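Subject: Sanity check before I submit

Could someone independently write out the structure tokens for this chain? I want to compare against mine line by line before I put it in a report. The sequence has 448 residues.
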Amino acid sequence: MVLLDVSIVNVALPSIQSGLGFSDTGLQWVVNAYTLAFAGFLMLGGRAGDLLGRKRVYIAGIAVFTAASLVGGLADSPGVLIVARVVQGVGAAFLSPITLALLTTTFPEGPRRASALGLWSAVAGGAGAVGSIAGGLLTGYLSWRWILLVNIPIGIALIAGCMRYLDHRRSEGPRRLDILGAATVTLALLALVYGIVNTASYGWTSPQVLPPLIIGLVLLALFCFVEERVAKVPLIRLGLLRARSVAGGNLVGLLMNAAFLSMWYFVSLYLQNVRGYSPVQAGLAFLPHTLMVMTGARLSSRLISKAGTRPLILAGALSALAGFVWQSQLGPHSNFVLMVVLPGMLMALGVGLVFTPVAAAATSGVAPADAGVVSGLLNTSRQIGGALGLAILTTIATSRIQSLSGDTQPTPDNLVSGYGLAFLVAAAFVVLGAASALVLPRVAKNRS
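---
Independent answer below. Compare away.
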């Protein structure tokens, strides 16, 4: 539900713009408002679950997310919808880290945890494709409002299930919240993501981009100082980042997500802007991607206890790399199966194969008291990677299209050239992610 709302909105943006009267520049904040709040509060949400009890925070996150979905679905102006998306993102940030933390604290390291992580990865990895499908169907046959209103019955059912089945557990250690650390890291992430998402409309050196990025990096350095020197009970023990599995898993997650998020984005643009597909047709075109993500995740969960994290990440990277390079050869009139479906299936298989070992590596050996904040750290790395990668790739694709088009309307050939270049740069991100995986231990081992 949380990750679905990142992609489900994309295919509905034209309908939202016409329905509420968004400007061209304002429309991007339907997506960016959610991404900004989600990424900014993830670390705080993860630690809140560790300190206050994961059941309590999980249910609160669902309730906030569901209520914001109702407000957004009934919005009668752009401002109301954007505020609702911000609140949705905050709810999601307190909800998302708990899902992974519950798995890592419920299942000990071994085959059962691998199986649980495989299912979690299948859902997380397939959310982008499922969101595109669901968004297309709901927008095409009902209304754009239903991409938000559909969360209400799901949220109510989840709250009822959590009240009955989840245990109320919280950390037995100190329950003091590191206010200064939480404030600095939240403001740092908000500034970084704000600067990154603004690159879609402004240059990298513009006042809307460069100062927020600098402020974010300064605050991030201040956060590290606070955690190491000031905080008596730090938000996250920086010693965790010295572990090869945790540090390497987060770096791989960041780089791989920089490539993977672009897959659905640029394929969707190609299908609608070049091939003239409707939102429903574009959404259904991602069905093979969804199936392959789930197949890859289930396969990796069965192999991880024997092969270890590193070989599976490298295998997934090889599959994704082949898919991105293949996809870069798209033409305006390319065969749909040969040039869209098949390379997309290779990329999606790579997503599924990579997500489970990355999650396993990044959470391996982490004490239960730190499970929530470490899960938040992994989710933050992936969100920052996705936002940064999409910003870079969009800038590259737009520059290529504008250089070919000049002052005239871009032709299908111009658009495809820009998208193809973006796929090639995404392939480079995959290579960097695979190289980063070499720092991981072959089999993630328990750490005290």
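---
OP: Matches mine. For the report I'm noting this point. The domain at 4-177+235-439 is CATH 1.20.1250.20 (Growth Hormone; Chain: A;).
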